[in-house]
Specification:
The chain is of the alpha+beta class. Helix content is 26%, strand content 27%.
Length: 168
């Protein structure tokens, strides 16, 4: 199990580095990320959420399909947007509707470094966009209007008894 970093940690605010080496240590990291995600009852988990500066995330769409996305890039989005409630393992207990494209096409590499492209909709599209944001230094509340974002940070801070100023 890996530790999940929460808002206020610098790693969650940076654009992560490209994965260059596809070896057994990458496989071990991905396995540990799945274990951590499962233990936390998550749908996805990005490398910066476990303190690692890598363009990598894992997703379980709960249809029995688990996918690793290494060096991902969203190459196309639908014109149609959908607002759905999101939460995040890095901001436990905080939920809010987020407006995102209903469908995306994402290109990434697998554990062997082979490039693939998929078109995603539904929960998979939502999870892919959410996790892709993480590797670009964005958490879901960053997508909210400032007033709503401030309310979410205040609620999180109160719920977790954090000192004012420890969350960005």
């Amino acid at each position: 199990m890996l530790d999940i970093y929460t808002i206020g940690e610098e790693i969650l605010t940076i654009k992560c580095k490209k994965v260059e080496t596809f070896d057994s240590s990458l496989n071990l990291l991905v396995d540990a990320m799945y274990e951590t995600m499962d233990e936390a009852d998550g749908v996805g988990l990005a490398a910066p959420q476990v303190g690692i500066d890598m363009r990598l995330f894992v997703v379980d769409d709960h249809d029995g399909v688990r996918r690793e996305f290494i060096n991902p890039e969203i190459v196309e989005t639908s014109m149609e947007n959908v607002a759905l409630e999101e939460g995040c393992l890095s901001i436990p207990g905080v939920y809010h509707d987020v407006d995102r494209p209903a469908q995306v096409t994402i290109q990434a590499q697998d554990l062997k470094g082979k490039t693939f492209k998929i078109k995603a909709s539904g929960l998979l599209a939502r999870a892919v966009q959410h996790e892709n944001d993480h590797i670009n230094g964005i958490v879901f509340i960053d997508r909210l209007p400032e007033k709503e974002r401030s309310k979410m940070i205040k609620a999180y801070t109160k719920k977790n008894h954090l000192k004012k100023g420890s969350v960005q």
